[in-house]
Write a structure and sequence with these properties.
Low-confidence stretches: 6-26
CATH superfamily of the largest domain: Putative cyclase
Shape: globular
Order of helices and strands: HHEEHEEHEHEHEHEHEHEHEEE
Structural class: alpha/beta
Length: 349
Amino acid sequence: MKTIPLYVTLLTAVAIGSIHFASAEKKISDNKSQIKGWEKGVGWGWIWGKDDEVGAFNAMTDETRSSALKIAKTGKVYDLGITYSRNSFIWPGHSPGEVMTFRSPEGVARQKDHDFTFPAVNSIGNRWHSCALFVNDNVATQIDGLAHITVGKDNHWYNGFKESDWGGNFGVRKCDATTIPPVVARGVMLDIAGFKGVDALESQYGITPADIDASMAAQKVELLPGDCVFVRTGTLRYWATDGADHEKITNHDSAGITLATAKYLVEKYGTMMIGSDTSGLEQQPAPEGSKTFIPVHNYLLVEQGVHIAEFHYLEDLAKDKVYEFCYVASTNKIAGTTAGFTMRPIAMK
């Protein structure tokens, strides 16, 4: 058997590695050619014009959506929404909710306030159920709108819209949740808890850029400009039916990304939306020395125009080791609301 010289083996390995690297670089380059608005080292920002209310989602086009849909080769769907009820865990800065029976079959019969229900014209006895909802616009599975967070003495939000100009008695009048377009994009799930070998990240754990890179390497997945990136902490493994176990959820809900990680994802990788399986995405409380209690929200929503996805159920994706998928989401079109809430987004593979 003829022995192959060592230098030939090494040259061959280098050549093969170069081919793979070139292929990956080409994929990133091809993707960049479809992404408008993002600049490496800068991110997104207030670049879409003085009247813009959409932010980084402006980067979505027919071409990027079509490319994302091609990821869904098997047709398998993962439900990323969680069930909300009057007992569900909520962040303490939001109001509680109630689902109230407004009309019931027996109530309709007793009330006798609609003549179209009377036996003379309704001999088979059709009646109905309907409910009245009192619910906060930042509960359960959600996407924060760009008016959700304000900053400064003038209480301005993304693109310089000010409370004195665009606040109102019936919700915000700029950047409300109706301005969030239907989202169809490449989604990437980074299973930080799985990578670290824990059920859920410990309370107040700060997810670092090093965690992002290590998770990407372990999962053999790359990030591309225009992605929607989700980090899994494991918190929602404790949601069960409707998130009634507040103690267990609270114990892990404070784990999240740091400001450095938010900047890393946006400015290095061109991430279009960042999400997680917690109520607030970011590490809580904010690290000592922070100028605000929510530095990640301020950076993403106000400065960059990057939406935040919260309480997305990632457990089934983690179980099946699905790290790349087509993400599809659409928010409630309720004027004045500051987030799309109680959503049911999906991941298609």
